[in-house]
TrEMBL record:
Protein name, entry field: Sensory transduction protein RegX3
Ranges of residues in domain OmpR/PhoB-type: 124-219
Keyword DNA-binding: yes
Bias (Gly residues) ranges: 229-240
Keywords: DNA-binding, Phosphoprotein, Transcription, Transcription regulation
Length: 240
């Protein structure tokens, strides 16, 4: 496989490059996140350190995931539970803490490769579900052609589900991505925002709840009556 090694430590990068080459892999190394973003689309696998000099590795991971399904294993010294959760929720296929044995890395790479690729993220800026239109670029939502004002977080929750329709997002994943804290799982805030989405769009099936699992974008069939244009709510999608 063609492996992109994103690591700014020369000594570790050299050792990993030698080990990977010994197992038949072709290695390309990047020291900076900006180079990783440029090269990730042309490789078969990515090994990503989080402590990069120009950008936090988690942000680089999220940016890659917006456009690519390339397998990614985070290879880092960060050992905290929250760091692991953030890495996996941001799109990593696995999380390996330094120091580690080469044999373990190879085994994990093989396991990730066997799983196959994840669903490709939506590339179109407008996602249609029944008569609901979600414009990811302009942050606008319409139902039957009528604009539906949403709060910033309501839209962020909906956009997260819309980027990969059919993929179930756990409560912790949504809380991490939208609120920035996966440990708020006991909070009712997410339930309130989901209820707000259903009420404002008048489409209860727009966000589907899978008990004990999470949420996903629903599949709306025949459109019902649109929302009352006089009941758009007090906030726009850009409101806090």
């Amino acid at each position: 496989m063609r492996v992109l090694l994103v690591e700014d430590d020369d000594r570790l990068a050299g050792a990993l490059t030698t080990a990977l080459a010994r197992h038949g892999h072709e290695v390309e190394r990047a020291r900076l996140a900006v180079d990783a973003l440029r090269l990730a689309g042309g490789v078969d696998f990515v090994l990503l350190d989080l402590g990069l000099p120009d950008m936090d590795g988690l942000e680089a991971l999220r940016r890659v995931r917006r456009v690519s399904v390339v397998p990614i294993i985070v290879v880092t010294a960060r050992t905290g539970e929250r760091d692991v959760l953030r890495g996996l929720r941001s799109g990593a296929d696995d999380y390996l803490v330094k120091p580690f044995r080469t044999a373990e890395l190879m085994a994990r790479m093989e396991a990730v490769a066997r799983r196959g690729t994840r669903p490709l993220p939506v590339r179109d800026q407008v996602v249609a579900v029944g008569d609901v239109r979600i414009d990811l670029e302009t942050r606008r939502v319409t139902v039957a052609g009528r604009p539906v004002p949403l709060t910033r977080r309501e839209f962020d929750v909906l956009a997260l589900l819309a980027r990969e329709p059919g993929v179930v997002r756990s409560r912790e994943e949504i809380l991490d991505a939208v609120w920035g804290d996966p440990l708020l799982a006991a909070s009712r805030s997410l339930d309130v925002h989901v209820a707000g989405l259903r009420a404002k769009t008048s489409r209860p099936g727009l966000v589907e709840t899978l008990r004990g699992t999470g949420y996903r974008l629903g599949r709306l069939a025949a459109p019902g009556p649109g929302p009352d244009p006089g009941d758009g709510g007090p906030e726009g999608s850009g409101a806090p």
